[in-house]
Amino acid sequence: MWTHRPARRRALFALLCFGGAALLAPGANPGAQAAPAAFFLKHQRQVSYPFDQVWPTAVRYLRVERGYEIADRDKDSGYIVFTFEHGSNKANGSVEFLSDLDDEGRKSVTMISSTSRGPSHLPFAILDGIATKLREERGQPARPPSPPAAPPPTEEVPDEDKTHDGGSSLPG
Fold this sequence. Notes:
It contains 3 helices and 5 strands, in the order αβαββββα. The chain is an alpha+beta fold. α2 (51-65) packs across α3. Helix content is 26%, strand content 25%. Strands 1-5-4-3-2 form a 5-stranded antiparallel sheet, covered by helices on one side. The longest helix is centred in the last third of the chain and has 17 residues, at 122-138.
């Protein structure tokens, strides 16, 4: 199948890698601009800190420690878009924040990092860096909430025994 259709193979490769399959289609305008590539390097991580602690730490980490330019951010929607140098080109990245509870019932945040270029480990490194900075600045996450106390046992009031009509159940 693939050996007989090299044009389809090139189109599929362009679509997956560059988002520009239309450039390789027969009759396509060679001067046409391809649509920007979708984010394809992605990683997700959960940290057991509340959103109000994660947000400012992530902004400082990306801007100060990594030196990335923050292109857009929205605390209410929970995202940061940034640009960074990759070789001689600029690349884009984002971190999304979703408030959640961890397995132990603590307030937590799931962070999702995506980059359009760069080394494949970059989304991992960004989220690991934010998690490390959280531990350095905030200490260990709060202890999980203790399970709710069981209600005290109630005293049972014996009901009248309604299984007998006053007689003996023994034969004889």
